[in-house]
Amino acid sequence: MPKIARCFVILCSVVLGVVSLHAQAAAKAPDKDLIELEHYTLTWDKVTRCFETLADLNKLAKANPQMAKALDTGEQKDESITTITQRLSSYPQVPAVIQTHGLSVREFVVLQLSVFQSAFAVAAKKMGADPAKLASQAHVNPANIAFMEQHQAEFEELQKKYPMGDD
Predict the structure, then answer these.
(1) Angle of CA points 89, 95, 99, to nearest 5°
(2) What pLDDT is attached to residue 13?
(3) Crossing angle between the packed helical segments 142-150 and 105-126, to the nearest 10 degrees
(4) For residue 70, what pLDDT is reported?
(5) What percentage of the chain has pLDDT greater than the value 70?
(6) Burial of residue 28, with CB atoms counted within 10 A of its CB: 0-12 exposed, 13-18 middle, 19 or more buried
(7) Does residue 24 surpass a pLDDT of 50?
(8) Is the dihedral of CA 130, 124, 16, 64 positive or negative?
(9) From CA 51, how far away is CA 161, in angstroms rounded?
(10) Greatest CA separation for the chain
(11) Nearest Cα to 149, choosing from 49, 42, 37?
(12) What 3 state SS string does 55-103 have?
């Protein structure tokens, strides 16, 4: 499996933090971020644009280490979608790159989180988790779980096309 972009890996760690914090709260009342993710539907076009955007952001981060800090979310594991969006927007070059791929910064954040959340759900399902519980308790869009399962080979090809690890 090719290396994943540092910013994607870091964002994934944020997602785990957000999902785990929100999952604890979900027993009480679903968090607005989880509801937003639950209602976001993945398409192949969106996923492709996400990977293209990540590749371009990775290049931007390598060229500008100071800006890379805006993309580094390692210490901020409990950030909301709004906070992540604001942080990414703090450097004008970042929204500019994202917008060249036809996405708003917020949609890019939601898209990334949805891809990761759905991939995590698929992995949990493969380990025996009940898909209905993933949908209801973790607020994962069932259509996104099915989408990820149906497009596994395409995801692998996309990762090969856009290798984003340390070169």
Answers:
(1) 150
(2) 42
(3) 70
(4) 65
(5) 75
(6) exposed
(7) no
(8) negative
(9) 9
(10) 45
(11) 42
(12) HHHHHHHHHCHHHHHHHCCCCCCCCCHHHHHHHHCCCCHHHHHHHCCCC
Please give the single-letter amino acid code of residue 129: A
- With cut-offs at 50, 70 and 90, classify the pLDDT of residue 40: very high
Mind spelling out the 3-state secondary structure of the chain? CCCCCHHHHHHHHHHHHHHHHHHHHHCCCCCHHHHHHHHCCCCHHHHHHHHHHHHHHHHHHHHCHHHHHHHCCCCCCCCCHHHHHHHHCCCCHHHHHHHCCCCCHHHHHHHHHHHHHHHHHHHHHHCCCCHHHHHHHCCCCHHHHHHHHHCHHHHHHHHHHCCCCCC
**pLDDT over threshold 50, residue 77:** yes
pTM, whole model, 2 decimals? 0.78
CA-based angle 20:40:134, to the nearest 5? 40
